[in-house]
Design the sequence.
DNA sequence: GCCCAGGAGCATA
DNA sequence: TATGCTCATGGG
């Protein structure tokens, strides 16, 4: 099987970089990941998006906690519902990993109810918190914990993938936005947009091949965590506004390069 | 009432 | 390995 597997010819590095330029030019910086705990504090806007600096966990344990929990809570769920769950967790003082570990699963489930799948997500948060005990970023902001510093980021990724309830998207979200490590996040939006722009409708869903899709971005970009974070956020932004399930192609900024657009009349 | 939203685990063929 | 089912709330 070829490197591209079922995907056929892969988009070139140039195409991937051009796509980023177009999205960034149009939407500007997105400042992901949103962090509710800091909303309305200096330097953060009303939604908790950091201005200029990113809420990387290495510099802010509170942001680290929010990103990690948010990554689980937003699984197959609108961010608004996940955010409401995060706020409720904070209100009930489930605001550290230790408190999650010692909490009753039913109580935690009640707190995260608004995010849906609340029984599963409460379990996931508890399992993840147990594992993260020894894998937290150091307070100095340099390196992570002593245990982690002797591991490569790939090994950290494998460890997190072993946690029940965490798949590649959730793990890479945590690695990128909380640990500030260069792993590109592939989600349903990314698949949809790549499928449409580069593969027309033929393989539009790109259901499998997470690693192949991720490699496309890794080999095309510099490895900057800021670019990875912005790019993923921009893909989400565009898919929410234009490249929706029923796409709004009229006036779409990607019309010029989109194979789906050229293959349809919408 | 239906569709969709920043997935993942598990059973089955 | 591929597909289908399950988990579940909330907004449009």
Sequence:
């Amino acid at each position: 099987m070829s490197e591209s597997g079922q995907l056929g010819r892969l988009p070139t590095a140039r195409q991937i970089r051009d796509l980023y330029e177009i999205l960034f030019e149009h939407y500007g910086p997105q400042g992901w990941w949103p962090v509710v705990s800091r909303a309305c504090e200096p330097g953060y806007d009303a939604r908790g998006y950091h201005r200029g600096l990113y809420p990387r966990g290495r510099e802010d344990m509170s942001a680290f906690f929010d990103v990690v929990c948010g990554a689980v809570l937003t699984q197959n769920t609108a961010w608004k519902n996940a955010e409401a769950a995060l706020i409720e967790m904070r209100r009930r003082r489930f605001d550290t990993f230790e408190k999650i570990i010692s909490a009753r699963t039913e109580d935690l489930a009640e707190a995260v109810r608004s995010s849906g799948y609340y029984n599963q997500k409460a379990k996931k948060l508890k399992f993840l918190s147990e594992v993260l005990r020894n894998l937290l970023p150091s307070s100095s902001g340099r390196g992570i914990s002593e245990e982690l510093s002797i591991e490569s980021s790939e090994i950290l990724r494998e460890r997190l993938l072993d946690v029940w309830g965490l798949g590649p998207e959730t793990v890479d979200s945590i690695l990128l936005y909380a640990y500030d490590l260069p792993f590109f996040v592939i989600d349903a939006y990314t698949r949809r947009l790549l499928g449409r722009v580069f593969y027309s409708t033929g393989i539009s869903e790109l259901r499998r091949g997470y690693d192949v899709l991720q490699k496309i971005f890794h080999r095309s970009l510099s490895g900057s965590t800021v670019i990875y974070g912005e790019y993923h956020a921009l893909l989400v932004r565009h898919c929410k506004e234009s490249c929706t399930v029923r796409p709004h192609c009229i006036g779409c900024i990607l019309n010029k390069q989109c194979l789906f657009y050229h293959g349809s009349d919408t």
